[in-house]
């Protein structure tokens, strides 16, 4: 038969004076706690609450009163000659075990005592026993002891009723607790405090305040510190500023405002309600009281409040004042200051705090280690963040989640996936927070294979229908260009929030599925989901892809109506969209009217000016950008180099290319080299362009070779063209566009054999060139034209107009360069 040993080893020392050292209650027996069947026992029958396979005496002789003529048989159970248990000793034992958190042992003592003929109706320690049952946090067992004291007739005692009430709240049994409270004929301050605290801890903060108000109305005894602490906590949780001020007034009136716990509660309440001045007044009143000025908790609450409200400089000043006052900071203080460093990105202060932790011996605290990891990651020093994690001996779920999530957020997605793998090897399945981080990592890397594994893991853990995990899955599939799977996951979600809608719309937009994106947006509107800045940014991206000016203006008007004109993200999107739709003037107006600009704002307008040929205005704006304290990045220089290429400014292009490397320590990427090769090729410096490609530290792609091939054709360099073509076809053997370009070039040079060879290769490989497509918006209608297609209902009129324009151009003296117009066949 299975046996259960409930006695905690730590309890042996505590009640060694209760037991014979040769018989330390170590016999194994199966314990059955009070069964619901005992509710029906009559009071005249003593319930036998224990069934045992081996009954051994667990008490010394001092706990029993025996007739001299009667002998106990401890090794064989108890008969009619069983000893009588000393009630006061049993009660004292139960109280000490309960006070030390050994709840199961306390209950066992009571149950075993009943076997020894214990007179339950003489027991006076039921509140302690009830507290032990509450410590088990088991609703069913709580109801059993409730029924037990009812049957024994002890429930009329208010002390017992309050104990049962507290037990139900401890077990999270809200319904039974409320029912019991409402049926109580008599209530004292303990009853009310238990209810106020219990309702608050259950998360019903408004309900807690209502009970507090009801107590004030019904009770002649005024609320004490415990009542007010729970009420202030409720006010802080729901930002009930008016109620909080009323409680503050009551505390001042009754003199309780000098209590250090209530001072902390008041400061926290005011900080949560964003009333900084009131919090400061309460805090300053504390400084005048020598007895509580050294209380670090009050300083911590004040510092944390400053940080949570964004008053970072005030928080740092108060921390320094705390140190100068000789008050020793604790782990909560240091966590708040490290959060401050994370928010302000002040790594220098963070490093100073890191050093200070060693002097206080707090560097091994798990909360502080986790905060240090967060601080280093958010300040851009992921190396030190990972170092602290690797050296820590306190790895827990929170720390693992922090390091994995921050690895993704700081641009180390591959490291995040590696650490997730390490966690699973050591601990098993991850939680939903780690899965979210892993899915974001897969999105960043466009790593579909790993994303599929994470999806399978989410299904296995039954969290794939979670709204956050589901939204991350949609985003991951969208980034991996699998919109079919993204669509499937999205519509299987039981509930779809704005984030998941945005993920689907953004995925369609990024994969150029503009029709599906617009349809999804309309369905989202039909479900009464209001778009936010991210939604609108995706729609503007669609406008930029289609160059649809009318839709862009409609969205712009919507943003003005909704009060989004101050949003930096949307203004940046509007600048880019208007420039791509051909209206650089609107882009310029938006840029000039922006109250706040970031690096993306400057890059967007610089790129727009370059696209529209406003080269010198772009150069001037670049100088303004530097004067405004904004640091150019790789995107800025891509725009500058591209503009130099189209304007044929070779010297200016070299100037910016060297400045990027020497002045801003930016390593040129493939796109920068492509711009330079295009610039040199357009200007006829073909050999210099070829040498630049060969000297690149990064691997050239087919685009950079294709740019040089086009320049070779334009400048008639047949020999270099063949060399460049070989490089291209090694990178992309199935490239139809470059093979057509090479064929046309051979035709230009009169090399018909080579022309037929290339065309035969194209035919043998089954390659087909995608026909060119263009569109134009006229009177709010988009007209699409595909090369060689005459299905448009106005085709005859259009081509007639083109023929007339061509004749007019010839009469004006224009002679077309027909050598550059070749067949794509």
UniProtKB/TrEMBL annotation:
<protein>
    <recommendedName>
        <fullName>Chlororespiratory reduction 21</fullName>
    </recommendedName>
</protein>
<dbReference type="GO" id="GO:0003723">
    <property type="term" value="F:RNA binding"/>
</dbReference>
<feature type="repeat" description="PPR">
    <location>
        <begin position="598"/>
        <end position="632"/>
    </location>
</feature>
<dbReference type="GO" id="GO:0009451">
    <property type="term" value="P:RNA modification"/>
</dbReference>
<feature type="repeat" description="PPR">
    <location>
        <begin position="295"/>
        <end position="329"/>
    </location>
</feature>
<feature type="repeat" description="PPR">
    <location>
        <begin position="157"/>
        <end position="191"/>
    </location>
</feature>
<dbReference type="InterPro" id="IPR046848">
    <property type="entry name" value="E_motif"/>
</dbReference>
<keyword id="KW-0677">Repeat</keyword>
<dbReference type="Pfam" id="PF13041">
    <property type="entry name" value="PPR_2"/>
</dbReference>
<feature type="repeat" description="PPR">
    <location>
        <begin position="497"/>
        <end position="531"/>
    </location>
</feature>
<dbReference type="Pfam" id="PF01535">
    <property type="entry name" value="PPR"/>
</dbReference>
<comment type="similarity">
    <text>Belongs to the PPR family. PCMP-E subfamily.</text>
</comment>
<dbReference type="InterPro" id="IPR046960">
    <property type="entry name" value="PPR_At4g14850-like_plant"/>
</dbReference>
<dbReference type="InterPro" id="IPR002885">
    <property type="entry name" value="PPR_rpt"/>
</dbReference>
<feature type="compositionally biased region" description="Polar residues">
    <location>
        <begin position="61"/>
        <end position="71"/>
    </location>
</feature>
<dbReference type="Pfam" id="PF20431">
    <property type="entry name" value="E_motif"/>
</dbReference>
<feature type="repeat" description="PPR">
    <location>
        <begin position="633"/>
        <end position="663"/>
    </location>
</feature>
<feature type="region of interest" description="Disordered">
    <location>
        <begin position="61"/>
        <end position="83"/>
    </location>
</feature>
<dbReference type="InterPro" id="IPR011990">
    <property type="entry name" value="TPR-like_helical_dom_sf"/>
</dbReference>
């Amino acid at each position: 038969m299975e046996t259960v040993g409930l006695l905690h080893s730590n309890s042996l020392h505590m009640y060694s004076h209760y037991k014979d050292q040769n018989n330390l209650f170590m016999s194994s027996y199966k314990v059955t706690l009070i069964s619901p069947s005992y509710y029906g026992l009559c009071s005249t029958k003593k319930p036998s609450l224990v069934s045992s396979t081996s009954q051994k005496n667990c008490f010394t002789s001092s706990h029993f009163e025996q007739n001299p003529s009667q002998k106990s048989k401890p090794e064989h159970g108890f008969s009619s000659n069983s000893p009588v248990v000393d009630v006061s000793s049993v009660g004292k034992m139960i109280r000490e075990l309960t006070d030390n958190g050994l709840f199961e042992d306390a209950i066992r003592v009571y149950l075993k005592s009943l076997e020894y003929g214990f007179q339950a109706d003489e027991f006076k320690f039921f509140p302690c026993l009830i507290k032990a049952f509450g410590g088990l946090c088991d609703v069913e067992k709580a109801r059993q002891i409730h029924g037990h004291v009812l049957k024994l007739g002890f429930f009329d005692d208010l002390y017992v009723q309050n104990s049962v009430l507290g037990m139900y709240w401890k077990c999270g049994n809200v319904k039974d607790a409320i029912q019991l409270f409402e049926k109580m004929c008599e209530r004292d301050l303990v009853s009310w405090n238990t209810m106020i605290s219990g309702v608050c801890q259950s998360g019903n903060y408004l309900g807690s305040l209502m009970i507090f108000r009801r107590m004030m109305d019904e009770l002649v005894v005024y609320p004490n510190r415990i009542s007010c602490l729970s009420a202030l906590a409720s006010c802080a949780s729901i930002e009930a500023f008016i109620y909080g001020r009323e409680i503050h007034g009551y505390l001042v009136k009754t003199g309780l405002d000098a209590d250090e716990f209530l001072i902390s509660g008041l400061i926290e309440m005011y900080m949560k309600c964003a009333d900084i001045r009131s919090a400061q007044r309460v805090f300053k009143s504390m400084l005048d009281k020598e007895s509580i000025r050294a209380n670090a908790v009050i300083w911590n609450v004040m510092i944390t409040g400053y940080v949570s409200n964004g008053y970072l400089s005030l928080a740092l000043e108060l921390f320094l004042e705390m140190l100068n006052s000789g008050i020793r900071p604790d782990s909560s203080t240091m966590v708040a200051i490290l959060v401050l460093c994370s928010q302000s990105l002040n790594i220098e202060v963070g490093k100073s705090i890191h050093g200070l932790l060693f002097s206080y011996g707090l560097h091994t605290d798990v909360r502080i280690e986790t905060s240090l990891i967060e601080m280093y990651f958010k300040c851009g020093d992921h190396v030190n963040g990972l170092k602290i994690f690797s050296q820590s001996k306190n790895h827990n779920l929170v720390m693992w989640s922090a390091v994995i999530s921050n690895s993704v957020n700081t641009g180390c997605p591959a490291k995040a996936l590696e650490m997730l793998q390490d966690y699973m090897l050591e601990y098993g399945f991850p939680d939903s927070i780690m899965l979210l981080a892993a899915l974001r990592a897969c999105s960043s890397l466009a790593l579909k294979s790993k994303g599929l594994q994470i999806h399978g893991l989410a299904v296995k853990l039954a969290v794939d229908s979670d709204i956050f995990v589901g939204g991350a899955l949609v985003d991951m599939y969208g980034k991996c260009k699998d919109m079919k799977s993204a669509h499937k996951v999205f519509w299987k979600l039981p509930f779809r929030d704005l984030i998941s809608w945005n993920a689907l719309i953004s995925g369609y937009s990024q994969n150029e599925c503009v029709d599906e994106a617009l349809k999804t947006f309309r369905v989202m509107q039909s479900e009464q989901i209001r778009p936010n800045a991210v939604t609108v940014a995706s729609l503007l991206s669609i406008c930029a892809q289609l160059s649809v000016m009318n839709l862009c203006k409609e969205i712009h008007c919507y943003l003005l109506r909704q009060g989004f004109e101050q949003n930096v993200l949307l203004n940046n999107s509007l600048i880019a969209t208007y420039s791509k739709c051909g209206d650089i003037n609107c882009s310029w107006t938006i840029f000039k009217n922006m109250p706040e600009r970031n690096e993306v704002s400057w890059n967007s307008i610089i790129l727009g000016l370059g696209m529209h040929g406003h080269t010198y205005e772009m150069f001037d704006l670049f100088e303004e950008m530097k004067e405004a304290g904004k640091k150019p990045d790789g995107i800025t220089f891509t725009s500058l180099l591209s503009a130099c290429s189209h304007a044929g400014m070779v010297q200016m292009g070299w100037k910016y290319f060297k400045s990027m490397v020497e002045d801003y320590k930016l390593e040129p990427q493939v796109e920068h080299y492509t711009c330079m090769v295009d610039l040199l090729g357009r200007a006829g410096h073909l050999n210099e362009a070829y040498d630049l490609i060969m000297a690149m530290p990064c691997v050239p792609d087919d685009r950079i070779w294709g740019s040089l091939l086009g320049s070779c054709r334009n400048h008639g360099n047949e020999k270099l063209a063949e060399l460049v073509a070989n490089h291209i076809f090694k990178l992309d053997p199935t490239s139809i566009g470059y093979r057509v370009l090479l064929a046309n070039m051979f035709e230009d040079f009169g090399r018909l054999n080579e022309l037929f060879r290339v065309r035969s290769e194209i035919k043998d490989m089954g390659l087909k060139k995608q026909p060119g497509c263009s569109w134009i918006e006229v009177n709010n209608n988009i007209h699409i034209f595909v090369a060689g297609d005459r299905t448009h209902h106005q085709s005859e009129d259009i081509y007639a107009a083109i023929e007339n324009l061509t004749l007019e151009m010839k009469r004006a003296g224009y002679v077309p360069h027909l050598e550059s117009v070749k067949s794509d066949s």
